[in-house]
Amino acid sequence: MKLVEVKEGKTKFLAPEMDENLNFPPSGAPVFFNKRMELNRDTTILMLKCLDAESYLDAMSATGVRGIRVFNECGINATVNDKSSGAIPLLEYNRDTYAPVLEITNRDANAIMHERRFDAVDIDPFGTPAPFLNAAAGCAKKYLFITATDTAPLCGSHLKAGIRRYFARPINNEYHSEMGLRILLGYAVREIVKYDRGVEPLFSFAREHFVRIYLKLSYGAGKADKAISSIGYIHQCKKCPYRTEQKGLLAETHTCPECGEKLTAAGPLWLGAVSRTDIIDEMLTKINQSKTESEPMFGTAPKIEKLLNTCRNELETSTFYDYHVLSRYWKVSPVAIDTVIERLKDAGYRASRVHYAGTGIKTDAPLDEIRKVLT
Ligand code: SAM
């Protein structure tokens, strides 16, 4: 394994050299590092700068980059854990060279999370986080951060795997990325509320091959019940673009009011807000402040700023329309997305872009009104 010194944020560390074309360390490298997850890690630093965490567990740390950055850039006591003994020499080198008081543990993530507690816990596995969320729900005192890279099961293109992992049924359609994010949120809520704990998403997004969610946890059966009240189903028509949502754990049977078809239920999933605007505002403020620093703090700042601004303005509907899909359905040529949004607003409805897709629109306008502005 050829190692190179990498700089991310204000932090230097040693990592396996990336393959120039694939952007991945060569297969067989004993320690994992993916430069393309820099934006994911930058949001972690930005988020922790807005929160009151004093201890942080990077439960699956590989090179330790996330924990080292949290320690260096947020001043938070960080513990970096990895089950693989092959990761430990590099973690030790990185600690000794770049972050002297970092704690290193070589445990199965579930074992350490059952034994110890941390203010903030970060789960960043290969693929699904599902096997780790039970232990993480007890381990995290205040905040739980989760990455999932198994977008195919989450979004419905590997349906059976999605059902096995998340005990929920997604539908693979034009808003599958939002559905996957909401299935993950719904599953995390299910794992947390059984401990009589409340849960509230602070910031969630889907990008490329991953979903990232930042959760605030609280205590009390009442708070848990409140979280459960945001769980439910999306009912989607197979024949036309009509969809509706239904809260509650029991999937009801619905018929499409547009075409009379029986609707298909997706879920159970999270129907509430996926982010808090006050947190996004704080993250935007921190990004702006970082621009005045002599040394750049976030390598992905322009991309994060764009993401945060789009998420900030996204309507709180649980699905979005792809207006190209709608245009094909109504057999019209699509106009510019900003024109569609303006027309919807002029007609008295709320409308926004989405971060999930460049052609996605969220609106509270009924289908008839959307058709009028598109045709
Ligand atoms: N967080 C890292 C980063 O930002 O670069 C990347 C982590 S990588 C995707 C996943 C890591 O989880 C690997 O290093 C792997 O050895 C470790 N891992 C897999 N299963 C684990 C388990 N059950 N307990 C602890 N670590 C585990």
Which terms summarize this structure?
Rossmann fold; alpha/beta; 14 helices; binds S-adenosylmethionine; three-stranded antiparallel beta sheet; Phenylalanyl-tRNA Synthetase, Chain B, domain 1; 375 residues; seven-stranded mixed beta sheet; single chain
Computed over alpha carbons, the radius of gyration is 21 Å
Secondary-structure content class: alpha/beta
Find the CATH topology of the largest domain. Rossmann fold
Mean of residue pLDDT values:
95
Low-confidence stretches: none
How many strands appear in the DSSP assignment?
A: 15
% residues in beta strands: 15-25%
Shape: globular
Give the fraction of residues assigned to helices.
25-40%
Report strand order across the widest sheet.
Answer: 5-4-3-6-7-9-8
CATH class of the largest domain: Alpha Beta
Distinct small molecules bound, one entry per kind? S-adenosylmethionine
What would you give as the CATH superfamily of the largest domain?
Answer: Vaccinia Virus protein VP39
